[in-house]
Amino acid sequence: MGVASVTGGDPAVSVVIATYNRARFLPETLDSVLQQRFRDFELIIVDDGSTDDTQQVLGNYGDRIRVFYQENHGPSAARNLGTRHARGKWIAVQDSDDLCTPDHLETLFGLIEKNPSYGMVFANGCYLGGPEHNRETIIPQDKSRRLARDNVRLVDLFEKSIVRLQAALISKEAWRTIGGLDENLRICMDLDLAFRIIIRYPVAYLDHVVFLYRKHEGNIGRDQERRLLENIRVIEKLVREFPEAREQLGRERIACRTAYRYYRLAKGRWKGGDRLGAREALRQAVSLRPLSLKYRLYQLRWV
């Protein structure tokens, strides 16, 4: 059994947390979910093959949570497993090291109640350790207000990866229709999922902070090479699978973003001493934007 639903039947929301060796952060995360003002939810934990004290930590919560275990297959596979067991009509995916604000579910579900046709609603987050990147919130304030005021478009998600699963509430129908998370992705699954949802369903945004992001050395997102490679793969997948995306975004915008990712990949490889890999990534950037003086100059310097 999970957290009891106030209706006595199936809960409105299923909160799914995938975890792998995060025993030291897990209690604070679970407590932040269990202390939600909104009560009509269940809490599902998928242990993705942890080798630390995760099972002992989870045992302390008794029937307040539902626990599933699998061999280590990565966060996307673990989250997909959790959603397959979800009883709610709405899915909230949380990370096992971040925190929910007390009004997290209350805020997001309040918008859903007004318009249940949404495939996804999402909001903002802030940094647990204080301001980062010269700003208080993950999505800058000006952009956050604009997204809330205007309809969220594919181009908004494309120009900057603004969707965090920790800040979203997703229709289980939409999740199943698009096939859930791509299990080959370990970092950019948020962006890929958001692309596939917004192509098919209306998406809304709230200018409100609903989670706190914890930065630490174990964050998988710190793997910059993997992040950039996955970002490129997600863009290529979007354009390949949804021809209408190419029409909405335009060839130039797609080429610019993809080339910039290759350029950043090239700089990271060069700094790390992978000269051959850097030149190849830069060649890809130049092939996408042959008139870019910056990319051409780097290419000449690295010859």
Give the helices and strands, then pairings.
Layout: E1 13-19, H1 26-34, E2 41-47, H2 54-59, E3 66-69, H3 75-84, E4 90-95, E5 99-100, H4 104-114, E6 120-127, H5 141-149, H6 154-159, E7 168-171, H7 172-178, H8 189-200, E8 203-213, H9 224-241, H10 243-249, H11 251-271, H12 275-288, H13 293-301
Parallel strand pairs: 1-2, 1-4, 2-3, 6-8
Antiparallel strand pairs: 4-7, 5-8, 6-7
Q: Would you write up a description of this structure?
A:
- There is one protein chain.
- The chain folds into two domains: 13-219, Spore Coat Polysaccharide Biosynthesis Protein SpsA, Chain A (Alpha-Beta Complex); 222-301, Alpha Horseshoe (Serine Threonine Protein Phosphatase 5, Tetratricopeptide repeat).
- The chain is 46% helix and 16% strand.
- It has helices spanning 26-34, 54-59, 75-84, 104-114, 141-149, 154-159, 172-178, 189-200, 224-241, 243-249, 251-271, 275-288, 293-301, and strands at 13-19, 41-47, 66-69, 90-95, 99-100, 120-127, 168-171, 203-213.
- The chain has an eight-stranded mixed beta sheet, with helices on both faces.
- Helix 8 (189-200) runs parallel beside helix 9, helix 9 (224-241) packs antiparallel against helix 11 and helix 11 (251-271) packs antiparallel against helix 12.
- It starts with 12 loop residues before the first strand and ends with a helix.
- The relative contact order is 0.11.
- The model is unreliable at 1-7 (pLDDT under 50).
